[in-house]
Design brief:
two-stranded antiparallel ribbon, single chain, 289 residues, globular, 10 helices
Length: 289
């Protein structure tokens, strides 16, 4: 009988991991696996970023399809491939779709407010926003869903879920409300640190390997740095530009804080279906054996 796509994909991941362990010395295995698994978890976002760079390098103005529209087609095809091959489950895709929709809504508002713009032409644009932009947010949700599974992550002690929901909603609302009233992003950043100060992300590189841990706020900050770097690639290619920004100008460091906060919105969205990874009480390595 033919393996279901999800089972086949998991089997492929195990075989690749086994191959790495055979080829590398023992002391290097877990470090290399960490890098490879992080890249594998970020596959959707990585492919989209490569498409943005590649299309900028080769695209010609007289081609029959605009670059933005081609990026929409690429993003949809990639998402379909992920579902077909079991890289994401339909359950994960529904939650990622939720983050896609909330991200697109924010894009529509921010572009209308003049925060940033998409300067190129395209048919598949809504109120000045190319439809591939929602997939950039979806890639963040995809990464979080996949990284939790790939590293067998556990979050402990995790705050009451209803409290994290309130925080996520407050963060999301502030992205809109700060245009009209006081910006409370620094209070929200402080709230994330206070609420998740004790929360450890437990993870391991191999199914039978030892568990490591990292404070959740630190993991969110490091992830926000990578997203900021990716955003700089987006502006360097002229795919989008902030108000008053030139193509060769660096994205403001303040955007790291924005991505840091948005990651919590993504986490709460993804853990709607990954509640088994959340533990109310602290864990030790002996609990995870």
């Amino acid at each position: 009988m033919t393996q279901a796509p999800k089972t086949a994909t998991r089997s492929l991941e195990r075989r690749l991991g086994d191959r790495v362990r055979i080829l590398l010395p023992v002391w290097a295995v877990e470090a290399v696996l960490f890098v490879l698994k992080m890249g594998w978890a970020a596959l959707f976002g990585g492919l989209l970023l490569l498409a943005i760079i590649g299309s900028k390098l080769i695209w010609q103005a007289d081609w029959p399809i605009a670059r933005y529209d081609a990026l929409v087609v690429f993003a949809v095809a990639t998402q379909a491939l992920f579902l077909w091959k079991g890289l994401e489950t339909w359950e994960e895709a529904r939650v990622i779709l939720l983050f896609h929709i909330t991200g697109t809504a924010m894009e529509l508002f921010k572009v209308h407010a003049g925060s940033w713009a998409y300067p190129e032409a395209g048919v598949l644009k809504l109120m000045g926003v190319p439809l591939f932009s929602g997939f950039m947010y979806a890639s963040v949700g995809s990464f979080q869903a996949r990284v939790i599974r790939i590293f067998e992550m556990r979050f402990a002690p995790y705050p009451p879920y209803w409290v994290t929901m309130i925080l996520a909603v407050a963060i999301y609302v502030n992205f809109f409300a700060h245009h009209f009233i006081l910006d409370i992003r620094y209070l929200l950043i402080a709230a994330t640190v206070i609420l998740f100060a004790r929360t450890r992300i437990w993870f391991r590189m191999t199914p039978s390997g030892r568990y490591y841990w990292m404070p959740l706020p630190l993991a969110a900050f490091l992830s926000s740095l990578f997203l900021w770097l990716a955003e700089n690639i987006g502006t360097l290619t002229g795919t989008w530009l902030y108000a008053g920004q030139t193509i060769w100008e660096r994205v403001s460091f303040a955007k790291i804080g924005s991505w840091y906060l948005l990651l919590y919105v993504a986490l709460v969205s993804v853990t709607l279906i990954l509640r088994s990874a959340l533990h109310a009480k602290p864990l030790s390595r002996s609990d995870l054996k």
